[in-house]
Amino acid sequence: MAARLLRHEWSVATLAGVALAVLLTWPTLKHPRTTIPGDIGDPTLQAWQVAWAGHSLITDPLRLWHSNTFFPEPYTFAYTDNLLGYAPAALFGHGVEAAVFRYNLLFVLAHALAFVGAYALVRQLGGIRTAAAFAGVAWAFAPWRLAHSGHLNILSTGGIALCLAMLARGHGWSLRHGHRPRLHRPGWIVAGWLVAAWQVSLGFAIGLPLVYFLAGTGLVVAAAVGWARWRTGRWVFSRRVVLANLLGGAVFGGVCVWLGTFFLHVVELNPQARRDLSWTRMFSPPLRGYAIAPADSWLWGDHFEPARAQLSWPPEMALLPGVTLVVLAAAGLTFSVFRVRHRVLLGLGVLVSGALGLGSNLVGQGDPGYLTLSRLLPGWEALRTPGRLMVWTSLLLAVLAAGAISEFGRHRPARGWQQLAGGIALLLPLLLVLVEGVNRTPHPTVPPAPAALRAAADPILVLPSDGVSESHVMLWSTDGFPRIANGSMTFVPDSQQQIRTTSMAFPDPSSIAFLRQVGIRSVVVLPDRLAGTPWDGVATRPLDGLGITREEIAGAFVYHLDRGFSPGVATRNERPG
What we know:
Layout: H1 2-7, H2 9-24, H3 42-59, H4 96-125, H5 129-140, H6 152-155, H7 158-170, E1 173-174, E2 178-179, H8 186-201, H9 204-232, H10 239-269, H11 277-283, H12 305-308, H13 314-317, H14 323-332, H15 340-356, H16 370-376, H17 390-410, H18 416-436, H19 451-454, E3 460-463, H20 469-476, H21 494-503, H22 509-518, E4 522-525, E5 549-553, E6 556-560
Parallel strand pairs: 3-4
Antiparallel strand pairs: 1-2, 4-6, 5-6
């Protein structure tokens, strides 16, 4: 039984996806507890996000959104995309090394799930296995994704393809065979909606376009069903299918509203968190960006170096989906196992998503276009990076290419040397996209947590308090999750800015009084990070007459503010709600 299960197509596809992910993200799992892919900025922040979500589920789920960072602000876990859907992974292990290991494992598995999702979608739509494998590799390991090696929320797209595959299967629909009512599977419909909800819980940066895609598709399908009812007098879908959609859709909608509520709270409390369209204009890629590969591409990186130098922000503008993918997708418009009208729709989808991905660089400065959506669709204005719609463009290209490969496989000779030659020709595109997916992503060592942090009573302020150091402090706080005034997001709340500004004169009477007033009990100073910052020289300033104590621990300093002052001063043992 076990051997039979392992030989099953989906078992093989899953194992292949994991193996390819390990190989094509290497050396992510070479030193998974001490190194991290991309850089030591956003990845360390996201490692903290996953760890905090799991910690909160175990200790106090009701206070999930009020994290241990940005003390004393509320709703700090909703300051940006938070990878909440990965919280179960954080139920095991604790501390900094566990957080880094967990992040690296999720980084690899995110690529594996993207492969499996695209494979499942192409198989459901009518593609052959080789075509599905091609689509899985071409989508999960596309060159443009290498620019986002430090953005796990952008790489976590597997749920998009997987939920579409499940919903299509549940409704008995494929590009190759159309709608087949006898294949309705209500259970798959519910599962598809649940996977879509999980995908949204990983972040709205990628999830919000999925929300609007599913809503738009639902309206089109409802109109088509109504039209068919009017023409024929019969319902296309059974009552079970309708109920499955209502149940799954309600859960999906409830998750979206629940998550959105907390993000709206943040904007209400911090107006500076709202992003205007100037951000979108700044990150809008030029048309030539679709033909430029990121620096981390082993095959294309050096070749496109001069072209990248002309981009104002290469990480969001180097959008090459893959040369092999584009060529085969173009072939799939005319030579395909899919129906002509479906190929036309896929081609239009590529053009529309590609045009929207240009943001303000589309004709008319993106209006009509991406900027129009920013004004009309709730939440869209927060999607400041139009080029990330390449998630959809490359998925549609992969489906088009899979149609061409499937048609070639259908006509492949069945005997003799011609069969062998046809088999090799069928595998060649798969080998080419594998080569295009090879990375040279850096894997820097994660800065170890200073021992002084463990000796400080919370709430804690760590100096210096700016730049990439903030992400490191967040990661270090996974060792026990003490409350910290530090934090790194796309905006700075007023309270943190005030703490930063005041602490530049620390230690002096006014800064100490202010920090005590807001509830800070300890200040940890990292001398090796002070050079060139506004806090340079803090560690050498005298303490005479200030009513605080200082101790040196492994090259860092802990200032104890709660020693020698009136016990009537509040220490904020509770987070604000």
